[in-house]
Design goal:
Order of helices and strands: EHHEEHEEHEHEHEHEHEHEHEHEHHE
Radius of gyration: 23 Å
Number of strands: 14
Strand content: 15-25%
Low-confidence stretches: 55-93
Number of helices: 13
Structural class: alpha/beta
Length: 320
């Protein structure tokens, strides 16, 4: 009989963390099956993974073909294009949904609701910013990208594919400042006009894109902004930098500012947070449950109560 193992049992056998097992499944290196609502790995699937690992077949081919110049001296490797390296069978062997997005209480709530929904399937989250999430969706490394960008940017990052955008919530983006706003900051222009140090986000994140667009439109050199090149990878981190006086201000979403309890927040604009999916995927297992959950009154009520997010457009589906 082909024995079935849980992710924890596989982790124990391979002496790795349980999260690493899920990462192997997500990357398509370890195949899995769905039993009811649970992921299970068979003895045969484990054996196949070990055989591929031992032979190196789970890695891209390192023996790339090469060509030479007419004099025969220079060997130039003919490397495959980036898309062929990235577009491996990440999704083909996944029995759940792979969702890319940064930490968010909204995503935590959604994933927990999917686990108990009658038609729900497991959701594996890969933590990355808006740009990288859309990049992963384009290269078919994810089923869903969580992104807070304008429609033009989303369209340009995932070209040639019919997309459906499910609005998860709307939120305020603005400035984090110490309680009382001692430097009297009011907008992004203060980053250039006043002697302050900022805590910046990494490239590809919504706050960084928002800031870079502003600096470009105002013809302000990033080099003139103190702290611009110091990158942190979450709004919680930039908020902590302000709260501990390592910087004077940062750009981020309102929720993180309130979490610290030590900051004031100066709102600048309201932005939507979208779940971006290929339209043809909506008919696949799990997506109908996801739509039903996000559009439910319970989801909106809990989300607004926990976070203060604007849920007026929650559940709205756009085509792109």
């Amino acid at each position: 009989m082909n024995k079935l193992y849980t992710a924890q049992e596989i982790a124990d056998k391979l002496q790795i963390k349980k999260t690493t097992v899920y990462e192997l499944i997500k990357r398509g290196e370890l195949y899995s099956s769905k039993v009811g609502k649970q992921l299970r790995i068979s003895e045969q699937q484990l054996k196949q993974y070990l055989e591929r690992s031992g032979s190196g077949n789970n890695m891209p081919d390192q023996k790339a073909a090469s060509s030479s110049t007419p004099n025969g001296n220079l060997q130039i490797p003919e490397l495959p294009p980036e898309s062929s390296l990235l577009k491996r069978d990440y999704l083909l062997h996944s029995s759940g949904l792979i969702l890319c997005g940064q930490f968010s209480p909204a995503l935590e709530l959604l994933i927990s609701q999917m686990s108990i929904h009658p038609q729900g399937i497991p959701v594996l989250q890969s933590f990355m910013n808006s740009y990288n999430s859309l990049y992963s969706l384009y290269f078919k490394k994810a089923h869903i990208a969580c992104a807070s960008l304008d429609l033009e940017h989303i369209r340009s990052l995932v070209p040639g594919v019919q997309l459906s955008l499910l609005c998860l919530y709307e939120y305020s983006i603005g400035l984090y400042v110490p309680s009382g706003n001692p430097l009297k900051l009011s907008g992004l222009m203060d980053f250039a006009c006043k002697d302050i140090k900022i805590a910046n986000r990494e490239k590809g994140s919504t706050p960084r894109i928002y800031l870079d667009q502003f600096l470009f439109s105002e013809k302000i050199s990033p080099a003139s902004i103190s702290g611009y090149h110091t990158e942190l990878v979450s709004d919680i981190s930039t908020a902590a930098a302000i709260a501990t006086h390592k910087a004077d201000s940062a750009l981020g979403e309102e929720y993180a500012a309130h979490q610290s309890g030590l900051l004031d927040f100066i709102p600048l604009q309201t932005l939507p947070m979208y779940l971006v999916m290929e339209t043809e995927a909506l008919s696949q297992p799990g997506f109908s449950a996801l739509l039903e959950i996000v559009r439910s009154e319970d989801f909106r009520t809990i989300l607004q109560g926990q976070t203060g997010y604007n849920v007026t457009r929650t559940g709205e589906l756009l085509s792109l």
